[in-house]
Amino acid sequence: MSLVAGLYGTLPIFIGGVLNTVAVSSLIAMRIPTTPFILWAAFEIALAALRLPALLKGRKAIAEGREGPTLFYFSLAILWAASVGYGTYISVASGDWVAASLACLSSAAMVGGICFRNFGAPRLVAVMIALSLGPCALAAIVSGQPILLIVALQIPFYLFSMTKAAYHLNRMLVKTMRAERENDHNARHDPMTQVLNRLGLEAWLRDKDAKNGAALFYIDLDGFKQVNDRLGHSAGDALLTAAARRLQAVAPPGAAVARLGGDEFVMVVDGCGPDQVTPLGMEMVDTLCGDGYRVGDQMVFVGASVGAAIYPQHGADLPALLGEADRALYAAKATGGWRCAVASDGTPLLTPKSVRGPSAMPPMPWQERPEAA
Fold first, then answer.
1. What is the pLDDT of residues 127-144, one digit of tens each?
2. Which of 186, 211, 227 is the last residue of a domain?
């Protein structure tokens, strides 16, 4: 989409090119008022009347995230290049060297604008350059002026070099865009699990319209520390990655899954009503705890506790919702874990400090599937 947007950009260059070709064709038609030149000037004016609205329509569509009239726009651009080439050919073939000089200078000047505006589509650049400037070489051959044969030799090399430059600029642009996209992805995603990080979650929420309500689920793995302590951090990392995949699998369409750090995950579900919160939270618990995780050559089991908060009932922004969901999470842990607790509306829940500690964790026998409390 960014490459296509570039084709509709640089409006001043576009207007300058259109005005130049209309002025040159009109002046030459006034100097040589014959049918070929009058038709050329009329065609340039008609193309200008079509190309400018197509450009403006395309710019508006791209700005709104829609597809513009790209094929029609490309067709007009090719016709314009062919018209420039036609005018150059008949001007040189006419033997009027004032008209020929004016037309050739105009055609050569257009090549820079063609490359600068359209290097997002290098094949289009190659076609437009060949159509606009190529006829100069043919006209030099048929002009009957031996000195102009040097033009027939120079222009093919010029066409080749400018086309190569367009392809080079295109590769540079694509490489830069890929690097920017990768950097943006890395900035918004957890490098290990590849789900969103907190920055990515905040960006996701900014782009969402939560008029229909939303629910935030704060998920913590019970017994994860034992896995880390017994099998090492690489095993813990593998477990977290597998848990993230399970959360993504159970997430409703359009939901966001994020890892805030350690074994703490967050899922935000847009349009989730109060009656859907607890069933969805328990589905997360079942998904995370229903089967063991193979870590290396061993099967390990962990539990999960979930705290949920509803927008806007429990908070109007991410920090407020996280705070209420965190309180609900530790209330779930205080009652034995392996369950989903929803933030109460106006009734304080147990604070994290009052429930945190060894007594709040359910027993987690090693390499055995624990029974829910």
1. 888 888 888 888 877 777
2. 186
